[in-house]
Every structure is written in structure tokens, then in C-alpha cells.
Amino acid sequence: MQALRILISNDDGIFAPGIQALTTALQALGEVTVIAPDRNRSGASNSLTLSQPIRVHEVAPGRYAVSGTPADCVHLALRGLLDFQPDIVVSGINDSANMGDDTLYSGTVAAAMEGRNLGLPAVAISLASADHNPQHFETAAHAAVMVVRRLLHAQLPSDTLLNVNVPDLPLALVKGFRCTRLGMRHPGAPAIKQFDPRGKAMYWIGPAGDEADAGPDTDFHAVRAGLVSITPITMDLTRHSSLQTVADWVATLSSL
Ligand code: MN
Fold first, then answer.
1. pLDDT, tens digit, 9 for 90 and up, residues 80-132
2. Which candidate, 72, 113, 76, 75, places its Cα nearest to that of 91?
3. Which of 91, 119, 194, 225 is the most buried (most CB within 10 A)?
4. Burial class, 142, CB count within 10 angstroms (exposed 0-12 / middle 13-18 / buried 19+)
């Protein structure tokens, strides 16, 4: 039987500890190829680099550092860089949570989403660390192996990927897995204004907001309870439940 071929990417960059832990763990399941940004591209979301060429450096056999975004990495991998078709795309392990509205900005989720867009099963894995200070990548790596192994035998809809968030705990303290929905955060903190040495104002985007909707069925709730949260997410942003309301409203618009 052909060995399982796993494509790994992330948004923290190819030299981040999380992607190294994930790579080591998934090698137990098959043949791993790593294609990841050459630097931290967290917050890149699904962006593609269209205004300049993208450089790819093979830093080791089957390990490619890319001068682009996470979505660029997976897109290039599946549209010309690799001479084979992987069986699955796994993104991570991100050094902090991607829960609730984080998923909208996350490059970790975007790399998985790009894989799913291009027809492959896909998983994003994040370690829900406190204050971006991750401790237990090995726990998330173990969870990743279990999820990937099961996903290969699952039939998920072709537009659905899995967003996995792992509590930052020793493996023995993790209580299991739970299927969740995305929660929601409060609006992010205000931007932080600073001045450069020439007196010009500059800004840092402020930290994400605290949990707002963290009810019992959410990702936030599961992780807080020591469970690995698995949320099926989809690329379709259509608010299906509002279609009729908006259609009725649109019908009242006078013609242009
Ligand atoms: Mn990141």
C-alpha cells in the first residue's frame, strides 16, 4: 500500500517549535512534506501574494521555506511545486488558540482551508496557550495524530475542514475530545499608539478580545474544561438563515 502523504504548513513560520513537533509526530503516520512561510505570518488569513513573485527555498529534503503567506504555501504546493498529490493537509501547531472569531484572521486555519479548497481533507491545529507562551506542543501533536488517523476514515462534506484547539496541559490531564461550534470574542482591545524616533505616530494592533459567547457547546468552553475542541468549519460565509429576510428586503428596493 502507498504510504500516506501528509502536507504540513503553518503561519508561525517553518522554524517555529509547533510545526517541528507536528512534523515529528505525523512522521509516524506516513511521508511528511513541509511547506511553510519563511517567517511568522500569523494573522495573514487567506491572503495570496499577487503583487510580487514568491521564492521557495528547500531548506532540507522535503522541507520548503516560502516567502509568502500560509495560503500561498498550500496553493503553490498543490498547484505546481509538488510532483505528487498529498492525501491530507495539516496546519499548525499554532502557538496560541484559534477559537471563535480568531478563525477569520488565522493563517493556520487559512492554510488548512486552502487545502480543503483544492480538494483535500484538512485540519488546523492550535495550542490554546496562555499569553502566547506555549508549554505542551507534545499534547497537541498527540491529538493531531489521533485526529488525522480518524479523519482518513471519515466522510466529511467537501467544503468542511476541522479546526482543532488543544488545551495547553500535560497529556495525562487532557480529558478527551469534544465536537464544538465556534464561540465569539468581545471586540479587540484598542490599537496601541507609539512614536518612531522621528516623532511619527505608528500603531500596533491590540490583543484579541475576551470571550463573549463561550457557552457550553463552544470551543472556548471545551478547552477551558480540559477537552480538545474540534469544530467543523466551512468556507461558505452565506448566512443561509437570513436569505429570505434579505430577499424580501431586496424586493422592496426600487429599480436603479
Ligand atoms: Mn500563528
1. 999 999 999 999 999 999 999 999 999 999 999 999 999 999 999 999 999 88
2. 113
3. 91
4. middle
Burial code (b: 16+ CB inside 10 Å, e: under 16) for 185-213 equals beeeeeeeeeeeeeeeeeeeeeebeebeb
Centre of ligand 1 from the C-alpha of residue 193, in Å: 23
17 CA from centroid of ligand 1 (Å):
11
Q: Tell how far the Cα of 30 is from the centroid of ligand 1, in angstroms.
A: 25
pLDDT in tens, 134-185: 999 999 999 999 999 999 888 889 899 999 999 999 999 999 999 999 999 9
Preceding omega of 93 cis (within 30 degrees of 0): yes
User: Ligand 1 mean position to 12 CA, how many Å?
Assistant: 4
